[in-house]
Design a protein that fits this description.
The N and C termini lie far apart (45 Å). With 314 residues, the protein is mainly α. The chain has helices at 5-25, 35-93, 97-128, 132-149, 161-169, 193-217, 223-234, 237-244, 254-270, 279-300; strands at residues 182-185, 188-191. Helix 1 runs parallel beside helix 7, helix 2 (35-93) packs across helix 7 (223-234) and helix 2 packs across helix 10 (279-300).
Length: 314
């Protein structure tokens, strides 16, 4: 598909406008973010992402709409896995709910920009050297297998290269100061734990993009579709985090489901020149795997006595 410049400009304008709405309305004024409010906002963002399928249908026909929807679901499902790591980052620094919202917002805004650069590089690489599709495919299959074998994620903030670089640039304060990223300590500015958490959120998202972006290239080679699916999957991720914050332990089998999805889309890439698997079959497989993983998780943890916490308690 050939995308006119106005489409890219329109997509950028829409994303910026929606980010502004999110910043202005969700969790504004320092109010406590309730589960009800987070669920409502998450539903709105999910609906907007799905409604964009209609715009893709109008502009690019059924094939473009299918590719976008499959890509959106891949990115949305993989982004949910990111939230588990973000939750551990916030717990590590002892950051309460309200400041978490600010970190999530700026982390998501930065992720959209960084992923845009990754998408441009990936599209250029696939266009210049078709054989790289096999590299991406093999990488996804290996990543999926590793995820299935080692489902538990561990983070080691003290080993993070970006965080250590931040520590060399300025002192790291151990005390929070509201929702401020920087404070003055004597004659120097110091980074608060909020800024340290933001650095970790941003760097972890870059690492996650290493498998999520090749995964979406498995269903489409159109950079516009990839960019749109990425942007709409990330919008509202902050609200979704506050919905799932108290339920992380209940999604016990989600990692296995995501691992299966990565193996499936990696296999699709490896078979690209042998048999082109229809997008609608990929879409059906993604939905089925997610449904099974979520249902199995909820059934398995139904009677374990865990209480769902409110976002303020995380």
């Amino acid at each position: 598909m050939d995308n006119a410049l106005w489409e890219w400009l329109a997509l950028g304008a829409v994303v910026v406008a929606l980010l502004a709405v999110d910043l202005a309305l969700f969790g504004r004024g320092g109010r406590e973010i309730t589960l009800r409010a987070a669920a409502a906002w998450s539903g709105v963002w999910m609906a907007l992402g799905l409604l964009f399928t209609a715009a893709m249908w109008w502009r690019h026909g059924g094939a473009g709409a299918e590719e976008y929807l499959a890509g959106f679901l891949i990115e949305k499902s993989l982004s949910v896995d990111n939230l588990f790591v973000f939750s551990m980052v916030f717990a590590y620094f002892g950051i309460p709910a309200q400041p978490q919202r600010r970190v999530m917002f700026w982390g998501i805004a930065g992720a959209i920009v960084l992923r845009g650069l990754f998408i441009a590089a990936g599209a250029a690489l696939l266009d210049a050297a078709h054989w790289t599709i096999y590299v991406f495919g093999a990488f996804l299959v290996v990543t999926g297998i590793r995820m299935a074998r080692h489902g538990d994620t561990e983070i080691h903030p003290q080993r993070n290269v970006a965080l250590r670089a931040l520590g060399r640039l300025m002192p790291l304060s151990h005390d929070l100061d509201g929702d401020r990223f920087l404070v003055r300590v004597g004659a120097r500015r110091a980074a608060t734990p909020l800024l340290a958490a933001l650095v970790l959120v941003a760097t972890f998202d870059v690492l996650f993009a290493a498998d999520s972006i090749p995964a979406i290239f498995a269903v489409t080679d159109d950079a516009f579709v990839v960019a749109a699916a990425n942007a709409f999957s990330l919008l509202g991720l902050g609200a979704l985090y506050f919905v799932l914050a108290g339920m992380m332990d209940r999604f016990r089998h989600l990692d296995l489901g995501l691992a299966v999805i990565l193996v499936l889309v990696g296999t699709k890439m490896l078979l690209a020149d042998v048999y082109a698997i229809p997008v609608y079959l990929s879409l059906a497989a993604i939905v089925a795997v997610l449904a099974v993983a979520i249902t199995a998780s909820l059934i398995t943890t139904r009677g374990d006595g865990r209480a769902v916490r409110s976002p303020a308690e995380t």
